[in-house]
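pinning this so it doesn't scroll away 📌
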Amino acid sequence: MVRTFAAFCVCVGLLSRAEDVKSLLPEGKWRLTFQDEFSRALTNVDAAWEFQNGSSGHILCSRWRDNASVSNGVLRLNAKKEARAGQAWTAASLWTKRRFTYGYFECRYRYAKATATNNSFWIMTTEGSGPEKKDGKFEIDINEGHVPDEINMNIHNWSGQHWAKSKTLKMAGKLLADEYHLYGLEWSEKELVWHFDGQEIRREPNTVCHLPAPVWLSLAIVKWAGPVTDAIAGTSMDVDFVRVYERAE
């Protein structure tokens, strides 16, 4: 059943501090298992996060640890116009050291205020040792956001013959670079259910997403999100918090 939080969602868009914002969880009992409210400075060898440091050849920017900063309880993924690693732009991408399988995943953030920015909250298995090298590699894009009002939700099967299932929504009347909003995903063995400010916006059967995977936060510069202009320089994807819950029943 879709839940309605219209009155509360107005407040969610205006509040600026994570401790003032309640989670908007689906029906049932949930237990908080991971959170980062970004109340501390990030370190180069961080307890919670890994960082990309290098080229991103499939997009228009390289991504670096020093493009991620924390101030006043907000993580900022900063876009810069600078030549580095053979690319003309830089941004930031990071992922949790911890891996998760199923639960409710939410992030409160606002987009970088420029076209050609891809503002992403997602889950993807990683290369390396352990179970993630087995068949079953996948990606769930909880949101690849584009200004002014676009939400993009994707499922990718990266094992064998690649396939994807995608859906784009325009959130009419919302300026998603001006306000913080809550983007959520309920991931279970059987289903994937996306939420925006506590309201269900998409539901799909889960056919491939079953391995442990980290949570990712990424800013990219891409051709398919609008014109690439100097307006990108100095913008940032701003993250208030990330929280992960598991079913408590």
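📌 and the second one:
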Amino acid sequence: MFEGCYTALITPFSGGSVDYGSLARCIEFQIANGVSGVVPCGTTGESATLSEDEHREVIEFTIRTVKGRIKVLAGTGSNCTETSIRLTRHARAAGADGALLITPYYNKPTQEGLYQHYRTVAEACDIPIVLYNVPGRTSVNLLPETVARLAADCKNIVGLKDATGSLAQASETLERIGNREFDLLSGEDGIVLPILSIGGKGVISVFSNIAPRSMSDLVSAWNAGDLAGARALHLSHLDLCRCLFIETNPVPVKTAASVLGYCREDLRLPLVPMGSANKQRLFASMKAFGLPVREVE
């Protein structure tokens, strides 16, 4: 259901407001360069600083702009179960193809709490749901046994974005899922090829905001049986992948997108612009990768 390269979209801002003109340009750039789908209102989209009205509007705008040409997997997670239900129902009504739900953050629920949270949302919302596990952000780890239990008990829980960075955990998740259809997606740009090699279906990518064709080609090469081609792309991505995370995501990728002319560098507090040394390191990596770096206006 969700296979290939999905871009975790940045949310462009201008003067403190969402810059919908730039968001449209970003979406069209993604479509033109072969991605399978886009993910509005995820971590990379600074969802934590969007108001609920903005959250809804960004999802609606993305769906209207895409016009069915690729899939839209809307970020609708929250640390409040009722809010997650409200946002997920909205995404379904707006026409999203699925919903990406981050584990509740700050509350630090137990595994039973995580299970009950996701099951409650799944039962309340008739839309395909992809779980999102990023313990480095949320301070909770959605364990393989809990993922397998949810996949068995909730027919509309269809996948997992695994941003643990652990191939062992991702492998155990698939082991426990067994033969059921389930879409494992890498949440780490630097290990897309290893995730594919254990049975993953693709990636939800930060990197593809600025190089969508290359990340899409990596997944396509693997699917075509071109291991050498996939490996060459994987290795060519690594330095830029590292540089896109030398400061908190999405600060580096939004900085990179700004020098490519897709948006302004504007961030919402408490995120602040990159330090000059890190910025120069990022720009050098972009140039080495072959991206046309220009000065920010």
